[in-house]
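Hi,

I'm pasting everything inline rather than attaching a file, because the server keeps stripping attachments. The sequence lines come first, and each chain or strand is labelled.
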Amino acid sequence: MKNTDKISITAALTAATCTLLGTTALQPVQAQEEPGWDFNTSLLYYAESDDRVQDLSLKTLSRRTFVDDRILSLGLTVDALTGATPNGALPQSFPQTFTKPSGKNTFTTPPGEFPIDDSFRDTRVAISADWEQPLGRLYAMNVGVSASAEYDYLHLGVNAKLSRDFNNRNTTLSGGFAFASDQLDPVGGVPDPLTQMRNVRDDDDGNGGRASNDSKEILDLVLGITQVMSRNFLMQFNYSYSDSSGYLNDPYKILTSVDPITGEAVPVPQIPGTEGPSHLNYYENRPDTRSKHSLYTQGKYYMNGKVLDASYRYMTDDWEIDSHTIDMRLRWPIGDDKYLEPHLRFYTQTAAEFYQISLVDDGQPLPEYASADYRLADFDAITAGLKFGWKTGGGNDMSVRLELYSQSGNVSPSQLIGSQADQDVYPDMDAIIFQYSYMFGK
Amino acid sequence: MSRVRPDRSIRVDAGDRCLRGQFSAMASPCEVLVDSDDIVAAERLTSLVADEAWRIEDKFSRYSPGNIIDRINTAGGEGVQVDDETAQLIDFSVTLNELSDGRFDITSGVLRRVWRFDGSNNIPTRHAVSDVMKHIGWHRVDWTSPILAMAPGMEIDLGGIGKEYAVDRCAGLLRNTTDAACLINFGGDLVATGKPRLRDAWQVGIEALNAQEQKSDRLVNLVIGGLATSGDARRFLMHNGIRFSHILDPTTGWPVPDAPRSITVAADSCTQAGMLSTLGMLKGAQAEAFLDAQGVQFWCNRGDGAVP
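And the predicted assembly:
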């Protein structure tokens, strides 16, 4: 085809159309074919300092859009996890020996280090399916199912959401629920709460008469309102309630039992012919219900191409954990097809009422609930990151994201006994997150 | 020809996350989607659009006795003076006639006397076609705006432009009347006037047929601009195993060989989209190459499911 043909036909047709319609200029068409499927894939690497947890995660979200805004989304995530988190026992000035969760052998932690069982390796596979569709003029609904499996954990979940537009579509109210039923099959069985760490035993199933599994149920309810404040300002408010019940302990977490004067771990008399913990430790115990309330607000502000996305969440629960989260992202376009997005997140929480760094061996009965899990402590965390995104030659989107996470705990001096005051009692943690994402349609 | 009195009513009801006004015009189901929740406004906008569509239908339909088209077609060789709007449409068709080397021709409608596309094998005789060709050809018309004169037996028909023109006219009325984003759809020829607030775009389904003659809809997200389809995947003639498309070449009087089943084009206006898809159909086997060269987005359906 000759080039002159193109110019003459297109230009002549445009001129003739403008004359016919009595206009001088027409707005350029904006049309794009909806791909049959579009895919959002990412590879994420997460690593905690001191060789704790490392995760390599591959994620794919496939989306198919049908006529009338009906959307099917299918998700698949595969995680390869190695390493472990501290088991809750306190570092000591001497070596400590612990029985591994399997009950089949022991490991020894050198002086001054947080005890970590490093034999932990896991692969997690998670799948999800979601269906979204409008229901008439004002309503839209969303239903989904999810499942994930690890060697010691099985999650099954369902969720549904209904939304309705009001106020000439400037306001959207939504209500939703999610229900999950999770089963734990801990290595070595489910430990009896607040009993002493067992010795190595050689029975058939390695469970030593323990129950092999336990379960929990989680119900989440969400009420939300999205409000168009102006052409470039959108706000969202959510209230959510979450109720968990069942086995809420971490079966691998323990507490050190310490001397009431020195604050040091109490040695266990060693019986010849047995192998087991060198010091007195107890398996943790948490209440078997937990209810959380949270309030969330998010604002999105568009200013000539830049988008500021800021949110705040307040959460309070009946374990007496209160948390505040502030999250900010600024998407800054560079030219037509690239952008930078700095990200900052601040998090702070108070400790659970039963959180304690150790148990005291003073002859008094043990408390009903106790956990030294650092995630239930009073701590602060900061995340700072930068994302860079660009369009590929084929019109697809790619991005890379690098984030640093730093968590530090605050243990009240009143909890510290004897030598604990001179020691690191909270396992501070830094982590690095690197993610590569690729979005394409087919 | 006896005609059923057309239904001139409008209905407004709930569409999917929008209000939908519906009516019939130009032998097509017509709809106006309004991104608003104001039912009174949606009724007013639908009336505005329907009144304009019916005005254009009445004025330019070749079936309405006494209208300008009827007066031209029954003038018996006399010159007929036309109004400004008719003159502009005729001028526009002249441009198309030149751009298509005579293949777009508003006098070609009389070919319908010999060609009936009903899926049958009724192929006209060569003699019948050459007979009717004597009454076809813009070069035989004497057009000196605003006077048109042509030989008795010739007819003009603005049906090839009318629907797209009506869609664009109605879109202009909506733009001048409301800030709400709207989508006008007259039987598959459509225009979007802006982005709906809670969605990224209006979603438009394009009907395509795959190799097994099954429907396989494709979705186009349209924010602003026009989309028009020429051709009809189900209108054809079969003769001796050969499919004759219903796109007739007025320079030969015979169907365009190797024409696609249908072509959908996206362009700044519905009129441009419609004319480009029609010109594409007239290019037959070269339809895709022609549209590629125009630098427009198009979806060409050859009944094999292969749509670029």
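The mean pLDDT of chain B is 87.

If the labels don't parse on your end, tell me and I'll reformat.
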